[in-house]
Amino acid sequence: MTAIPSVRESTAAILRIRMTRPETVQKGQLQPAQFQAALGGSAFCAVTDRYLITAFHVLNDGQPRSAGDRFYAFVVPRNGDSAFHFPIVGFPVERPDLDLAVLEIGPCETAGVHIPSLAVSFAPRPDGTRVVTVGYPAPEIMGLNVDAQGNFRGGQFFLKSHANEGIVSAQYVIDGVPVYELNVGWHHGESGGPVAALEDRPVAFALMQHYRNIQSPHGLVAGPHRGRALSGIQQELTKLGVAGA
Length: 245
Description:
There is one protein chain. The protein is mainly beta. It has one domain: Thrombin, subunit H (Beta Barrel), CATH 2.40.10. It is built from three helices and 17 strands. It has helices spanning about 5-10, 55-60, 235-240, and strands at about 10-20, 25, 30, 35-45, 50-55, 70-75, 85-95, 100-105, 130-135, 140-145, 150-155, 160-175, 175-180, 195, 205, 210-215, 220-230. The longest helix is centred in the N-terminal third of the chain and has 7 residues, at about 5-10. The model has no long low-confidence stretch (mean pLDDT about 95).
């Protein structure tokens, strides 16, 4: 009851805006550019108002990020009536091999709105560790306003974060980095959100990524949900000023 509100305030939804057709002139008539938008991932703040950690696949479905795409981080304090957005201005860490990335944000477009950091740990967590997860299930985008360059100018979507709790159910090492399986389910759009240990204060040690495929009599089905330890990018995070708890 105390952990969820604090983790929620440090968690953001990631909006990607992509140009699908550039501005053209046809028969003397200006045809405006067309854009596509998706709120298909989450992230959490590791340095207040500066750096967010997310899953790499949030940026472009696991493919290299498109340089022309624009990204914004949205927060909805206390799941209230108002959403606020921060422009993403840099990508200091992109690790497709680990499905981890760090995003740099600029000041919020609304003066006085901030996103606090969540404590981070690089220490391993044993099976049975109690955890809480928070992410933003991907909403239907009913309307979006962008300018000719693709900058966000407003939109209509029902954006609320969702929390869950459970334990570390299993763990193993892949490519030298611990991977945790959790008895926690999540929805599309929550990938990149924090997996935080419930200690004296919540401490993020991994993030939500994907699930392990399970063979069933009816084919492959979604198995245990899992995430990779933040220790995989400890060196990069330390250089950015993220101190492990």
